[in-house]
Design brief:
This protein has helices at residues 7-18, 43-52, 57-61, 94-107, 153-158, and strands spanning 2-3, 24-26, 40-41, 66-75, 78-91, 111-113, 117-122, 127-132, 135-140, 145-146, 182-187. It is α/β, with parallel strands linked by helices and 194 residues long.
Amino acid sequence: VIIGGGPAGISCALTLQKHGVDCCVIDKALFPRNKTCAGLVTDKTYRLLKDILSSNDDALSRLFCKTANRVEVYDRSSLAAHAECDIMFRLVHRRDFDSALVNIYRNRGGSLFEGCTDLSIDYDMKQLTFNRSEECFVIDYDHLIFADGALSKAHKDFVLKREDMGFSIETFIPVSEPDEYAIEIHFGYLDHGY
């Protein structure tokens, strides 16, 4: 069982499928869903996705909306450094990217439980319980993979308290189409982060 249907969880599920391992993915959201998270895919991640989706290069190319090889680092609003990279960064709209990966997983016969609430895990019995559309599900598992992000069930059950975590805010600002795209990294607005 994989908890979390974002890129990490679905990539894990697709990899397991590719090697003939049965699994299911559980996510609290319904797809397509908005996601407050970055839309940058590194070259390493691109190569991993290419390996996972090797039978469908067309599906891979449809995942990305823009490319950029320029990186700009800002100290607040002042440009501190910039570089042209030999590798290309690929950019995605997370709603579309995540949904496309989920659809590829589903089309390959993957099992996805979405819109799940009240997830509880009995680690001794190796059993998950959750609700979906007013119906209660109980699933036994052999292995459990947490891919549900910074506020994960694993963190809540084992390690971190919510006050030890951070948060992010994302917004979209309409601008005219630039001639060249650049990855911008802004420091100085937050004490810990960018």
